[in-house]
Each structure stands twice: as C-alpha cells, then as structure tokens.
Amino acid sequence: MIVYQDLLSGDELLSDSFPYKELYNGVLWEVEGKWVVQGAVDVDIGANPSAEGGDEEGVKIRLVKVVDIVDTFRLQEQPPFDKKQFLGFIKRYIKNLATKLSEERQAEFKKNVEGAAKMLVSKLSDLQFFVGESMHDDGSMVFAYYKDGATDPTFLYFADGLKEVKC
Predict the structure, then answer these.
(1) pLDDT at 54 over 60
(2) Domain TCTP: where?
C-alpha cells in the first residue's frame, strides 16, 4: 500500500486505495470521494425491559454518514476563504512548496501552477477546504467540491505537495 503524506506537515492525506486523475500537467490530482454510512448496532438481549420500566427497544442503531476520504485520513474542515485570503494562502503555499522541489520540478511546477490556481479561484465559492490531522498552518490544503449533478464530492490535491510512502 502507498500512502501520500503532506510534504510540509507529514500528515497522511491520501492513499493508492483512491485512484486519481492528473490535471494541469500533473499539478493537481483529482480524486472522487464517496459518502458512506458507518455505525454500530447495539443489541440488548437482556431481561424484559418493559417489566423493569426500561426502554422497549431491543436494538439501537447509530448510523453516521461520512465522506470516505475525510474519515479515513481524519481531514479537518476549515472555514471558507474569500478571494484575498485564498490568494494569500496560495502564494505562501507555492513559495513554501517550491523550496522542497528539485530545480527541474520547480520550473515545471511554476509553469503549470498558475492555471491550477486560476481554476481554484474560479470555483472558490463552491470549494470546501480541508487540512491534515495536525492542522499545520503551512501544510497542504485539500479542496473538495461537487461536480454538476454529483452527489459525492470530488477532491483536489496539489500533487507536488505529496510525498509517497510505501507501507
């Protein structure tokens, strides 16, 4: 199994269990998330609760709907950004990330990241923002949105911000 960690914070953000599609010459990865139902069933097979003045229900089901990627990697949702805040974040993130890349990859990243950033700005009002479990200030941001008519979210990752770790 391969886990993808945030290059800046070390948080686990994705794994090879979730296939991705490259966008903007590999700058962004697009990953389809799914709503899943999780829960536990409590079955009470004890004495007759009605005779003891208790609850007459013998089975209690606690179900919760979660997005698989958010739940698996314990992503933490962040408040939305306005355009000015988002541009400030993107500039700082690109600067921090570029220092971690090889010179060759830096040039390729800087050439293609502008198109990816423009696309994110164009979807800004539709995006949800997530960070890794540590909530590191300078870590990668994971973006989620719903494609037209979709019931499951689509996630976007900066590919260069991920480090592959074999488990």
Answers:
(1) no
(2) 1-167
